[in-house]
Amino acid sequence: MLNKGFVTVIAFCLFIACAFYLSFSVVTSHFTSKAEEISQGDAVKYHNYLDSLSTEKVWLGYTLKECREKELNLGLDLKGGMNVLLEVSVPDIVKSLGDENSENFRKALDLAKKRQSESQDDFLTLFEQAFKEIDPNAKLSSVFGYGLKDNGVTIYSTNEEVMKVLRSQVDAAVANSFQVLRTRIDRFGVVQPNIQRLENSGRILVELPGIKEPERVRKLLQGSANLEFWETYEVAEIISPLIKANEVLKSMNASAIVADSAAADSAVAAPVAANADNGKDSLLNALKQEAAKDNEAAKPSQNTAAQRAQAEKENPLFSILQVNVSNNGQPNPGCVVGMAHYSDTAKIDRYFETKQVKQLLPSDLRLKWGVKAIDDKGQIFQLYAIKCKNRDGKAPLEGDAISDASSDFGQYSSYAKVDMQMNSEGAKQWARLTEENKGRCIAIVLDGYVYSAPRVNDKISGGRSEITGDFTVEEAKDLANVLKSGKMPAPAVIVQEDVVGPSLGQEAIENGLISAVLAFVLVLIYMVFFYGVVPGLVADGALIVNMFLLFGVLASFKAVLTLPGITGIVLTLGMAIDTNVLIYDRIREELRNGKTLYSAIEEGYSKATSAIIDGNLTTIITGIVLFLFGTGPIKGFATTLIIGILTSLLTGFVLSRVVYSFLIKRNKISADVKFCTNITKSWFQNTKVKFMELRKYAYIISGVILLVGVVSLFVRGLNQGIDFSGGRNYVVKFDKAVSTEEIKSALAVSFDGDAPSVITIKSSEVDNSDSRVRISTNFKIDDQSQSVDGEIESRLYNGLKPYLKQGTTQEQFANEYILSSQKVGPTVADDIKASAVVAITLSLLAIALYILLRFRNIAFSAGGVLALVHDSLVILGCYSLLYSVMPFSMEIDQAFIAAILTIIGYSINDTVVIFDRVREYRQLYPNRETASVFNDALNSTLGRTFNTSFTTLIVLVAIFIFGGESIRGFVFALLIGIFAGTYSSLFIASPVACSILKKKDKKVAKK
């Protein structure tokens, strides 16, 4: 037996680690509840309270912000929000760098675009292949010689050299888009956003929890980034207008702001006139006073809320904007106007947009915030003074002038620097700009935020410049990417989108919790019912610890818990019972053979080891495939499934064994414990079912079922979801029951005769609350313009207006009636299809290879794989036959593929347990007839087969009834799969393996 002391220490350490990570969720929940209590529904107060504590240490030396980063995150389907997949247009980048007059270039582009939807290779690989096919002797340098000349490409460059440079340019463009999006999202104010760059695809995944303005997010994410170089003001040049602006705002706060412009103008005149004759000395004195007041106000421990409010009343601007002056009131050199807390930046912007204040400031002054916080806590940002001299509002120099940029370390500094190279035209403009601004700063602005504002020491000729500052290596690298990619026309377009409303998310949480708790309780009761009080409670304790460890590991990995993830947890619960069932059935066998309780327990654990490891590893294989090829919620499902299996092995196999050793050693367990109850003691004992003799009937039944299913697949096909077909889904609620046919007819008019699909997913006749339908359409799905999403919503609103409450506006419709939306572009749909085929194929091959390695006989691999193919076809056939009959969605989507792979793992688990017993019996009884060996193995494991299938069915039925509409189709596939998998293990996998083994045995006998 394993060293119990070592196991106990490891388990204890893991338990403490999980408790540590889960504690952050408890802490954040406490402060969230307190914020809700204090705010009383006021969103501003709610966020202000949490913001005020964000940098305060609240638990074990961690700030509230750090605690929120470490808590167990809920997915968008549980708390609402937006999930967006953006794709940077690599073809557009290639097109901009190449010679569009080249016929070969145009043909290669078109061919690569056409093949992109049918291939898993990246666009550049497809383009290179297409270019070679069109003209094997053509050189890429002839096409990209001009566009990449500043990157070292000449007419003598080889195709490999050109492709290397081209890839670096594309990679820089994607990196720049990622950087821009990350900055935009950070400024959007979303709690716990997630942005990931998907390698080798040009795609960027963005998850924004709690978003309630999807249209604003679409514009934010798809807006093109614009790199600009601006002249600047020195602080000394705008000090006087700033002081006057502060006085004007003070006057406006002291008296009500009048509505008409004439009155507003008169409100400005007094303070301006009062300061008109002030000289330089009075300005400096005023700044000294304001600096002193600001320094005092900056000490929160010495100032009450009332004092801060009074300070803001006396100095509306300077109380929240720390002006960039020295202690004696002298303006500091540079273009930084001042600095402010991030929570005050919006208010400062509003102040400067006020008509009365704008009249005081230079007409060509533009104020822009820095992209990076300047303090360790990430809260203080600088405000820069930009000078806009052109009438058209454009910058004197833009990003298309940059040919290259790289990061490096300065020769005499510990900080990183950025080397920048302009093209020939840009070099001329840069020389003029730097000559005119000697001794002044030039601001580098991307997407409206200042990345750097280096001071010009002298005219820079030749276009090569060095930008220095307090850059870290990563910051310098980011800035270099920004500069290098500024000339790239690489718009990011949304190719996939999911929006879930907060009310739907809350409903999903409630449904998920109900199904999880109910399934958990039912399984706990069943274990006590079947195996008795002591064995049942030990198994139940292992399950409870298993759940705790599972959530703890998820929290430590910063995993996101989704609704399919909860399903994975609950399903893991049902499958985790299998470990205990295998062990307990073995113990019962040993007890019937006359062993003592201690010996029976030792033998039970020992003999069950092989089957437990083999069965769980095959399920883990499918989980890994799901994780590698799934996206979003499916990856969450795979994560929880894999972790759940590992924790169930630890608790069900290792810890429970330690518990039994402890109980026996201290005589805490009675010797007459039989691992059964009076009711169940005779269940599945001495069964003599002749499975091998029944195989012909089973083949006929399976053949008929498969034939009907295959015919249906060819005739009716499958109801493909938008994951595979591309399109948009909208879940829309109504205040009363509606007819899907009427909705469909109304929308057909609104969508120019292209009638969308409409199905009911919740009827008000059930609970008298609301009616919900899901509307699916592929109308204009190929249109990538930014306005198309708004157009589709407008058409929906116009078509559904007669069924909405009278007076409902389009904005109300979008925010209150559309509960969730989903968009999948055609290219993404094609990729998902290809990934699904690859995932299922790889899963089958991996399992076949594993069984072959473990059992050293092709018969077992063939039987197992044929059974899995049988199960998959049965599920597909049922979905083809029933998708228009069932009252819930039976679409073929990513969740369905996850169900298929889960059943593959489950079914092979059952099959491997039987094969393991066959292998054991063949070694014990080498002269016994093969069919008898299989019959004996199947009968001896029949109790385990029933218990595992029954407990899993309990779990799935609980999820199916209480888990909510969104996963009902997914769970239905699992239910079919459990029946099919159990059946195929008994009547397909075993008979096929038996037949092959008999043939091999006959050949051996003849020799």
| Alpha carbon gyration radius | 34 Å
- The share of residues in extended strands comes to 5-15%
Helix content: 55-70%
SS-based structural class?
alpha+beta
Q: Which whole number gives the mean pLDDT?
A: 80
- Spans of 5+ residues with little confidence (pLDDT < 50)? 254-284, 290-303
Largest sheet: 8 strands, antiparallel
- Tally of helical segments: 35
In the sheet with the most strands, the strands line up as: 5-6-4-18-23-20-22-21
The number of E-state strands comes to 23
State the distance separating the first and last CA atoms: 43 Å
Overall form: globular
Can you lay out the helices and strands and say which pair or pack?
Blueprint: H1 4-39, H2 43-53, E1 57-59, E2 62-63, H3 64-70, E3 73-74, H4 76-79, E4 81-88, H5 90-97, H6 103-116, H7 123-134, H8 141-144, H9 159-188, E5 194-198, E6 203-209, H10 214-222, E7 227-232, H11 235-254, H12 261-275, H13 280-297, H14 305-314, E8 322-323, E9 336-341, H15 345-353, H16 355-358, E10 365-369, E11 380-387, E12 397-398, E13 402-409, E14 416-422, H17 424-436, E15 442-446, E16 449-452, E17 464-471, H18 473-484, E18 492-500, H19 502-531, H20 533-556, E19 560-561, H21 563-592, H22 597-629, H23 633-665, H24 695-715, H25 722-725, E20 727-734, H26 740-750, E21 757-762, H27 764-767, E22 771-777, H28 788-800, H29 810-817, E23 818-824, H30 826-855, H31 858-882, H32 894-924, H33 930-940, H34 942-962, H35 968-1006
Parallel strand pairs: 3-19
Antiparallel strand pairs: 1-2, 4-6, 4-18, 5-6, 7-11, 7-12, 7-15, 8-9, 9-11, 10-11, 13-14, 14-17, 15-16, 18-23, 20-22, 20-23, 21-22
Helix pairs in contact: 1-2, 1-3, 1-20, 1-23, 6-7, 9-18, 11-12, 19-20, 19-21, 19-34, 20-21, 20-23, 21-22, 21-23, 21-34, 22-23, 22-30, 22-32, 24-31, 26-28, 30-31, 30-32, 31-32, 31-35, 32-33, 32-35, 33-35, 34-35
